[in-house]
Design a protein that fits this description.
This protein has about 350 residues and is of the alpha+beta class. It contains eight helices and ten strands. The relative contact order is 0.12.
């Protein structure tokens, strides 16, 4: 009996040693909400003991179509785990390796307010956090899991909303990949000159061609390597308008089945752009809207050709009533530049039966 007990103890010690060895080999990575770093400086964005110098492995990027956030200036970064790459076999739903981290910094009046952070753990799950910058501007502190509103003089109405983690998932998990703004279409070298709020990429920003050349994106369909992807459209204004709707609405209104439960596709495809454009037009042009706005009389269409003033899409983009506004989260004021672009497109739009 004693021999059996000694054998069992020996086996338990061996298992414990094996688990300890595996833990030592695995990269340090937070696996629960409790383990989120308390400060932004602990997330891997910056070099050690600095919030001024980026870590050597961090890559900056600038999407060609930006998400409206009440006029906030933004910077964005990604850090991939060493030796790993993004699988682009599905060009509209990139698969990011465990260990991927992304950041988006928001500023008003030259002052950093907030940096949002998402990471993919070893278990494949994504986690979201927001970090609020201190008055000294030398670090940012983990925000509560619930949404908070800050007094920020430079922001619209002097208020700035930091999203709760449930707010993050509402947008980021409404499609096949939670990473928004870092995709074949958004990083294409064929950038749209009419894109609303277009930002000029920084000299060291990464784009699609550079990602492929460095082996950081693999299995991209040959068609997208040979010809930079772009939004398919009949005219330049339509291209910019569809790109704007893709960035601001497509994370919920798409063909994945994960987002809004309405038949409205506003996400555009990098590989199958003609089909996604056709889906957008078929679901919106001349189609009755589910919601009504006081300014619209009768059975208004989502998009009424030549008549943005009678289009539900425009009315909901302009509204900031909680039950009507689109997007439903993240903005206190309407985007005048984006609205003007969409209205120009609708003015030029033909009825669906007349389209090529």
């Amino acid at each position: 009996m004693a021999a059996v007990v000694r054998l069992r103890l020996s086996l338990l010690r061996a298992c414990a040693l094996a688990l300890a060895a595996l833990a030592a080999l695995a990269p340090a990575w937070p696996q629960s909400d409790d383990a989120l770093p308390e400060r932004l400086s602990g997330t891997g964005l910056y070099a050690p003991d600095s919030t001024a110098q980026l870590h050597a492995d961090v890559l900056g990027f600038t999407p060609q179509y930006v998400l409206w956030s009440d006029g906030a200036a933004k910077r964005r970064w990604i850090r991939l785990p060493a030796g790993r790459a993004i699988d682009a076999s599905a060009p509209d739903a990139w698969q990011f390796p465990p260990g991927t981290r992304l950041w988006k910094e928001f500023s008003h009046g030259g002052r950093r307010i907030e940096t949002r952070y998402i990471e993919r753990g070893r278990d494949g799950r994504w986690r979201y956090a927001a970090y609020v910058w201190n008055e000294q501007g030398d670090d940012a502190v983990l925000a509560p899991a619930r949404a908070v509103t800050l007094a920020v003089r430079e922001a619209p109405h002097g208020r700035y909303d930091v999203p709760g983690r449930a707010d993050c998932t509402a947008c980021h998990e409404g499609t096949t990949t939670p990473v928004l703004g870092f995709s074949a279409l958004q990083l294409s070298g064929d950038r749209d000159p009419l894109a609303a709020h277009a930002q000029v990429p920084q000299p060291d920003d990464i784009d699609l061609a550079a990602l492929v050349a460095r082996g950081l994106v693999r299995n991209l369909p040959a068609a997208l390597s040979q010809h930079a992807p772009r939004v398919q459209a009949s005219a330049a204004t339509e291209r910019a308008a569809l790109g704007y709707l893709h960035a601001n609405c497509g994370h919920c209104h798409n063909r994945s089945g994960e987002g809004a439960p309405v038949r409205l596709t506003l996400a555009q495809s990098a590989l199958d752009g003609r089909a996604s454009r056709a889906d957008t037009l078929a679901a919106a042009v001349g189609v009755s809207g589910r919601y009504r706005a006081a300014a619209l009389a009768g059975d208004a269409a989502l998009i009424e050709p030549h008549a943005p003033e009678r289009s539900v899409l425009v009315a909901r983009m302009r509204s900031r009533q909680p039950h009507l506004q689109m997007p439903p989260l993240g903005t206190r004021i309407a985007d005048d530049e984006g609205l003007a672009l969409v209205e120009r497109w609708i003015h030029q739009l033909s009825p669906l039966e007349e389209m090529p």
